[in-house]
Amino acid sequence: MPTAHRTGSIRFLAMMAVVAGSSMIARTATAHVAPESIPGFAQPAQREPAKTIRPGTGREVDLRPRFRVGEDLRYVMVLENDGVTEMPPLESSKQSSRQRVEFRLRTVETDPEKGSTVQLIYEAIRVTIDSGDTRIEYDSATPAKSPRSRVPAPDPALPDPSAALAEALAPVVGTTLTLTVHPDGSITRVSGGSELSSALAGRFAGPIADPQGVKDLFGPIFSSRSPRPTAKQGESWRHEDVIDLALLGRLRLTTDHSLKSVKGDTATIDFHGRMELDSEAAAMPRGIRLSDTVYKGAYLWDSASGSLESMEQTQGFTLSGDMEGASVRISSKGTVRIERRRR
């Protein structure tokens, strides 16, 4: 097979890995499943009920979410992803992205028995994407200076890649999504956000423009996925999720949570887990293996406010094998950090 065609196929596989990496990073340890409110964005997960795997003996903590009509909770979320594609004897290529989103959650109505309606309002976004020697950026705080590109040898016949980035991200700020939240804290429905339904928005805004991604990313703010409304220090619980990554097949996530410590109203909960392909998609070349999986993190739960104080998660994987006569290795590693802003 000609080298150019084979290299193009490898790049397609690398693109699939980046897409899968973003999806895997977005589907955090507290992933929730519910019917899609906007079809076609993402494949929902299958969720198994959480179960206690070790009882605790220390202080008991209330892990239930609390909602107060008119209350605003402000957060900042940072998503970072780094990828490397290796195909000897060609030089390896690197890709990375960083996304910083500031948002506000406002409770519109709440009922202890039926659940709550919460507005998710995007207030600011900043994105940087690096691929080889090329960088594109967008910052909603300085739209006059955005977009910015760093392209080693730009082709005047081709559009500035940052123009597409700006077109996709400009509608994000000010967009309001409406979340329906179950009394246990799981997000059961996401509505609104028609401004983010374009293909460009889905490509560059990622999970924040995807109803399933919104459920997975913002779910930890309302729920710890504990099988009981309270937990004692030293207690551990486990849950399993099966996620359809489309291009790569189904991924099975098994996650263990442990309530490590309690200080005042704040509980520290660690989590770690394992990832494995449950099945391969038809689009995935045979012989490609998933390895070097990393899946861990910790979060602080404020029992007084009934919400997340902060969370940090690390997740990664490697795809390797032979494709069209070439040895291929694609690695991806990312983090998700969420922190409450008080002012």
Descriptive key words:
two-stranded antiparallel sheet; single chain; mainly beta; 14% helix; 15-stranded antiparallel sheet; 49% strand; Lipovitellin-phosvitin complex, beta-sheet shell regions; 4 helices; 343 residues; disordered N terminus; 17 strands
CATH domain class:
Mainly Beta
- Quick one: CATH superfamily? Lipovitellin, beta-sheet shell regions, chain A
Structural shape: globular
Rg on CA atoms, Å: 21 Å
| Total strands | 17
Helix and strand run: HEEEEEEEEHEEHHEEEEEEE
Instruction: Please tell me the overall pLDDT.
Output: 79
User: Helicity, in percent?
Assistant: 10-25%
The CATH level-2 architecture is identified as: Roll
Q: What count of domains describes the coordinates?
A: 1
Q: Mind summarizing the main beta sheet?
A: 15 strands, antiparallel
Distance between the termini: 60 Å
* Number of distinct helices: 4
Q: What name is given to the CATH topology?
A: Lipovitellin-phosvitin complex, beta-sheet shell regions
- Which spans have pLDDT < 50 for at least 5 consecutive residues? 1-44
Strand content: over 45%
Structural class: mainly beta
List the helices and strands and how they pair.
Blueprint: H1 3-26, E1 46-47, E2 51-54, E3 60-62, E4 72-86, E5 93-111, E6 115-131, E7 134-139, E8 148-150, H2 161-169, E9 176-181, E10 187-192, H3 199-204, H4 211-218, E11 230-232, E12 236-244, E13 250-263, E14 266-279, E15 289-302, E16 307-323, E17 326-341
Antiparallel strand pairs: 1-12, 2-12, 3-11, 4-5, 4-17, 5-6, 6-7, 6-9, 7-8, 9-10, 12-13, 13-14, 14-15, 15-16, 16-17
